[in-house]
Input
Amino acid sequence: GSIIGLIVALLRVGDSRVVRTLAVVYIRVIQGTPLLLQLFVVFFGSDMVGFGLDPFWASVVALGVNAGAFLGDIWRGSLQSVPRGQVEAAKALGLSYFWRMRDVVLPQAIRIATPPTVGFLVHHIKSTSLAALIGCVELTQAGHLVNSAVFRPFLIFGLVGAIYFVLCWPLSIASQRLEVRLARSTAR
Output
């Protein structure tokens, strides 16, 4: 999803109007449909076209495509929030699009993109529970299977919730620390 997101973000701020339009269509279609529907389309659609994916790989593809659209939009906003004068100065120096992005725009955009990216990733980790609906055994589904054997729902799903918390909370803390560190390096 991150690779797709980076490509989409760069296409959105590129020079070609056609490419920008295609990237916008991709983002609007993916953001305008529920993740559950995307999981169903990838899982059942891949079977219809003759190369059926097992539930795990269908989940990977659908979650990756979904993340690509949202991260592409987040990162596009970060790229476009870099002061216009910086981009114009890089153009005046004769830097190509690749070098402008690599040396001028991306380093500044990363500082801006960190908080919303981590917020989205925390949300996306929790969204993986939807993969259970196409038969992928992920954390919530595993909890359901264990609960079926021992029938202690409060304990089992309490542990599932604790595992999600242990996965997501350190990301939030790391994001806050990274924000502070990046702010300090910017202030110097």
